[in-house]
Amino acid sequence: MHTFFKTTVLTALVSMLCTSVSADEWKLAKDEDGVKVYTRSVEGSKYKAYRGVVTIKATPERIEQLQEDTTNSCKWLYRCQQLKVLKHQGQDSWTYMRIEMPWPVAARDVVLHIKTEQAGTGGFIRYLKGEPTYTPPADGYVRVSSFEGKWQVLPKAAGTVEVTYEAQSEPGGSIPSWLANSFVVDAPFNTLQGLRKAAESR
């Protein structure tokens, strides 16, 4: 019995430690206007991952509708210059996006394979994975060489949803450190602000 008690306590302590370490991986970089942005370093990369979280007065269906409207979603996606669907197959789709950059940095383009899964709570998760060789890069654009991310939309109380946007990428070419550091905060912050405005403006 004594051994069982010690084992239980040890297991609980290890669990608490692991949870603490996991929580410390993400560091709060911005908390403004109801949007929280976290960043963390990624082993083997000089570019940080980012995570943005916001609560929106909307249903999961409304968010899904806005995301699938590629013509208008480019208006609230940060620095989106062009967005179009290349292929749609079941719960999978492939999209092409052009991303404008401040001078003198070259604009980027990226092909994303998006897989949508329904969450048990009535929400959904979209997993994003870059496929840089799916199409040739366009003239005047640098192809994003790697991209991993996800959208998570979960219903909450009183007709709201919690939206999480998370990603990490290797943008290809050369990016000044000041731009890289600002992008990982500005991208989720402005994107989620724009999505919330679009979702709540009807």
From TrEMBL:
Judging by the UniProt lineage, the source's domain of life is: Bacteria
Q: Which PANTHER family match?
A: PHOSPHATIDYLCHOLINE TRANSFER PROTEIN, START DOMAIN-CONTAINING PROTEIN
Q: Where is the START domain?
A: 26-202
Give a yes or no for keyword Signal in this entry: yes
Q: What's this protein's name?
A: START domain-containing protein
Key words of the record: Signal
The record, for InterPro entries, names: START-like_dom_sf, START_dom_prot, START_lipid-bd_dom, START_lipid_transfer
PROSITE patterns hit by this protein: START
Signal peptide positions (record)? 1-23
Species name: Pseudomonas asuensis
For the keyword Nucleotide-binding, the answer is no
